[in-house]
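**Archive record**
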Amino acid sequence: MIRGVTASAALRATSPVVVGLILIFAAIAKAGRPGPSRFVIEYALGRIRLNEFASHVHFMLYVLVLLEILLGVWLLSGWRSRPARRVALGAISLFTLFLVALVFDPAAPPCACTGWISLAENAHTANILGVGRNLLLIALLLVPAAGVRALPTAKPGVDRTSAN
């Protein structure tokens, strides 16, 4: 541990950075090769019987990419970090609900959450791993808000190794 920095402060500072970087990376991967992500959006629209919006999938994807980048930059900036964490928590929770729906749909494609980079070749496995990844991101966003406390540190001149 760095002198004078508690575990809570370190976690509070680094967790939004990690989540922000992952959001930006996912957005760039989607923008770089949008095909898999467009396919998942088209599939989802078909499943909920909103096929009339299929002509707007390209626009929806770019809005998603833009929102992920903006949210990632907001988390990285540290500006109003509590609201940024809350918005990120809401967005990732919605993404996770979508992934859970894909897990229970045997015909579902892999999520394409990170663009062309897939966590597994099998769609069902990739979607389960995506849920796990998102739960880790949610935990990263929740732990600092819970006020994790560091173990007490020894004060100079105080011997805590001997039993009194």
The chain is about 65% helix and 0% strand. Residues 20 and 72 are 4 Å apart (CA to CA). The radius of gyration is 20 Å.
